[in-house]
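Example record for the data management plan.
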Amino acid sequence: MASEELVTLERLQAARKVVQQNPLFVRTPMLCHMQEHFRSMINPSTDVYLKLENTQITGSFKSRGVVNQFANIPDDVRSGEKMIVTCSAGNYGKSFSCMTKQLGLKALVVMPETAPVNRKQIIESNGATVELTPTSNIQATVERHVKDGMHLLHSYDDVHLIAGHGSLGLEILEDVPGPDIVLVCCGGGGVLSGVAAAIRLSGHTACKIYGVEPEGAPTMYESFKAGNAVAIPTVKSIAAGLAPPSAGKLTYKHCKSFVDNIILVTDEEIIKATSALYHAGFVVEPSGAAAFAALLARKIPDDITQKKVVVVLTGGNVTPQELCNLIKD
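Corresponding structural encoding:
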């Protein structure tokens, strides 16, 4: 498949089989009628469903895309002749390093100097090498390693990764036939692309699909306004996993084709959502709670009365100390 092409339903279905066969993946729960648990915050006439990707083995949805990426690496990479390089602030790097450990491959993860120490330690514990660099220098560092002969696996702008994430969309349709609204967090746009493609290509044209980004890192939002993938010089958010410096060209094309719009939420709204989920018994990191924040903050531009609203909680890789720092009451 050429890199500029959109995924097809057949490719999504094939990727799903690959993902299902890997021990790094589990089918995560879909909790139904969750408005009852947030009665003071959500209109009880809205039927809310929570997809718990925070319960994946690696703590986030990232393993879906990573598994399919590695199933499609070139022979010289699979044989160990070429080393693999990627960049990540945490969750992708964790799943990536789990796969390199599973396959016995050498790999390098370029991380921003601001990445939490525990994220770096987890990746290194799986046998991958970590190189820290200023955020502004990440792209140049990765490009240098690729020029020196390493094989790049992109953390979000990759068609095999998007196809793997499509498995999440196919599960949503099995768990909640005919959803009215689906909310998905958006950073680089990989999981949003895959979920939206799976829903649309399965024939659900009436379902409204929204990506949710932090106001401080609106790369896909600004890309929609510009009509092409854009970079933002300075991004900052409590949801670090949703703050890449640019939208992917491939993910933008998928989102523009399959996603209705992008919703922006504030850091304060993300923290409130993370807190509300925690007090309801769910450990979700800020990046994983952004879609739920859009629901709680009433940011959905549609009437959601008597509608089935699916919210994807994308990750739970947060330490007790980090949660304590966020949740004050």
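Summary line stored alongside the record: The CA atoms of residues 36 and 140 lie 49 Å apart.
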